[in-house]
Design brief:
- The complex is a heterodimer of chains A (183) and B (282).
- Chain A is mainly α.
- Chain A has two domains: 1-94, Rna Polymerase Sigma Factor, Chain: A; 96-183, Winged helix-like DNA-binding domain superfamily/Winged helix DNA-binding domain (Arc Repressor Mutant, subunit A, Orthogonal Bundle).
- Chain A has helices at 9-17, 21-43, 46-62, 74-92, 97-100, 108-112, 124-133, 136-146, 152-159, 163-182.
- The radius of gyration of chain A is 18 Å and the shape is globular.
- Chain B is an alpha+beta fold and 282 residues long.
- Chain B is built from seven helices and eight strands.
- In chain B, strands 1-2-3-6 form a four-stranded antiparallel β-sheet, covered by helices on one side.
- In chain B, helix 3 crosses helix 4.
- Classes of the chains: A mainly alpha (183), B alpha+beta (282).
- Chains A and B meet through helix 2, helix 3, helix 4, helix 7 and helix 8 of A and helix 2, helix 4, helix 5 and helix 7 of B.
- Chain A: Pfam families: Sigma70_r2 (PF04542), Sigma70_r4 (PF04545).
- Chain A: GO terms for molecular function: DNA binding; sigma factor activity.
């Protein structure tokens, strides 16, 4: 689908509140890659991720009236729905922690790229630039915390690093990420 | 903790990764609400984190979108957006600078509205009080006027009563002689009475019926002593005519008479103008 115009966030929110399907379609085209990326990273399961993505967008469509502009941006709200929904499903499967995080460090994004029917991200080059500058440990730290919802204790156990150093290393990882992105 | 210390404490980084403790989250959220600089820093971190996530985005298969829109169009309950409680929809507390601004604006608007309503209520109350006060003031003034008039009437009655009592005492005194003076032939309708105390020599006159004279004339009382008329003074008519009027004194008299004379009285009575006359009984 093509769109003659892009929308501001306020226009998107108003359009969704007005139950405008054209706006919703734009929203989907614009944000589904980011949300889908989150779900895939959390679940490590492409077939389940498609259903979850659909669920997440249904939630967005149905509950937009609960979105409060004064509390944050629309993208932040949608990301939280996607992440929390996916992490809940991950936990409900009662997998062991080790199973949950399997393949985390084998970058799904890179492995699957070009091999599956999933289309590559439009920002592949941008992401590669980050990967070059973050150590593998820094990526794992961030991804365990953000995508797997791990606690400091869980990170300490999985990565086999002392609990006391998790905080310090996490700060360094996030700071490094910030420095890369702000360049 | 000052905002700069908070920003360099490392809590924001842990918060972004999602591994900050509950206590740290509470502290940070309080700091975001208090310091716009902290809120702005958190927002900057959040944008970085979201950029990191966005860069790892993947385009889903096209049939997911088709299926999604089919669901939206075919399930009426979805279109209506029935409320289903879902914790995932809860937004994290993000206090951006913009929010602080709009928050204070909302507070101001709320405060202004409350003040306006309060002022209107007070206006109403005070206006009613003022109206009541004005009514009371009017009532008070009219009461004051009526009280004054009652007071003056009461004084008048008091005076009258005193005069009447005085008259009664004179009349009831057994030493006082009552001398009725019927009308003469010329004025048969006229009537007056003299009350005379021969011991104290006091003489009082009571007008029973005498025509009101012109303004240049006055009635004059005479005592006839040993055949000669003696001036007993002029007396008033009008309202005063109903009272006993004290005249000049005399210790001796056989007869009393009233003539109409020029104002101030005359030395000798005008006999043609004699209205009433009466002899002392006994």
């Amino acid at each position: 689908m093509e769109y003659a115009a892009t929308y501001t966030e306020a226009e998107l929110v108003q359009g969704l509140k007005d139950r405008d399907q054209k706006i919703f379609s734009y929203l989907y085209d614009h944000y589904s890659p980011a949300l889908y990326g989150v779900i895939v990273k959390v679940l490590n399961d492409d077939s389940a991720a498609g259903d979850v993505l659909q669920d997440v967008f249904l939630k967005i469509w149905r509950h937009l009236d609960r979105y409060d502009e004064s509390k944050g941006r629309l993208f932040t709200w949608m990301l939280n729905i996607a992440r929390n929904t996916a992490i809940d499903i991950l936990r409900s499967k009662s997998h062991k922690l080790e199973q949950k995080i399997q393949n985390l460090t084998d970058d799904v994004h890179l492995v699957n790229n070009g091999l599956s029917t999933v289309q590559p991200s439009t920002d592949y080059l941008g992401f590669s630039r980050i990967l070059e500058k973050l150590t593998k440990e820094q990526r794992t730290l961030i991804d365990l915390a953000y995508y797997k919802g791990c606690t400091q204790e869980e990170i300490s156990r999985v990565m086999e690093i002392p609990l006391g150093t998790v905080k310090t290393r996490m700060r360094n990882a996030i700071t490094q990420l910030r420095n890369i992105l702000n360049k | 903790m000052d905002p700069q210390h908070f920003i360099s404490s490392g809590i924001i980084e842990l918060y972004m990764a999602g591994i900050a403790s509950e206590e740290e989250v509470r502290e940070l959220e309080a700091a975001m609400a208090q310091f716009p600089a902290v809120a702005a820093e958190v927002e900057a971190y959040r944008r970085n984190m979201e950029e990191y996530i966005r860069l790892q985005g993947r385009t889903p298969e096209a049939d997911i979108k088709t299926s999604l829109f089919n669901k939206i169009n075919n399930e009426p309950n979805l279109q209506e957006g029935e409320p289903v409680p879902d914790q995932h929809l809860q937004q994290p507390k993000v206090v951006s600078m913009q929010e602080t601004k709009s928050l204070s604006w909302k507070w101001l608007a709320t405060a202004a509205a409350v003040l306006l309503v309060g002022s209107l209520v007070l206006n109403y109350v005070f206006f009613n009080r003022y109206k009541e006060f004005r009514e009371y003031k009017d009532k008070y003034q009219s009461l004051l006027v009526s009280q004054n008039s009652i007071l003056s009437k009461s004084n008048l009655y008091k005076t009258r009563l005193e005069q009447m009592q005085e008259s009664m005492e004179i009349i009831q005194d057994p030493k006082v002689l009552k001398v009725p003076m019927p009308g003469t032939k010329a004025f048969p309708e006229a009537l007056a009475t003299v009350f005379w105390n021969p011991q104290s020599q006091e003489v009082y006159l009571k007008v029973n019926k005498l025509p009101e004279p012109t303004t240049d004339k006055q009635y004059q009382l005479w005592a006839i002593v040993d055949g000669k008329p003696v001036d007993m003074g002029v007396f008033e008519m009008g309202d005063t005519a109903s009272l006993l009027q004290k005249m000049k004194v005399t210790g001796k008299a056989q007869m009393f008479a009233v003539t109409l004379e020029k104002k101030g009285g005359a030395l000798q009575p005008t006999m043609e103008q004699m209205y009433v006359a009466g002899k002392i009984p006994g």
